[in-house]
Design a protein that fits this description.
This protein has helices at 13-16, 26-42, 44-62, 64-87. It is an all-alpha fold and 88 residues long.
């Protein structure tokens, strides 16, 4: 963002001051356009997605038995609910 004339301390500071209840100002449009452009130029979304999914996979792998048990219980509850609805 800096090379486009903006200076923000964090990636969220660019939109923190936006009032989303009103139509965007010209400055907001310029800021948002620069933000998206920078994200494409740096592959920010690709990197973020890779890192986030890697961390999530680690959690899944570490807790696979608990997740399987939760799924089994949730499916049983859903089956019970379907039977109750069908019985009307």
């Amino acid at each position: 963002m800096r090379h486009k004339g903006f200076k923000f301390a964090t990636r969220l500071d660019a939109i923190r001051s936006f009032d989303f209840k009103k139509p965007p100002s010209d400055e907001q449009v310029r800021t948002a356009t620069a933000d998206v452009s920078c994200k494409f130029e740096t592959n920010y979304l690709g990197v973020w997605t890779f890192v986030e999914s890697t961390y999530q996979q680690r959690v899944i792998d570490a807790h696979e038995p608990e997740i399987r048990e939760f799924r089994r219980i949730a499916e049983a509850m859903l089956d019970n609910a379907r039977r109750l609805v069908a019985e009307g």
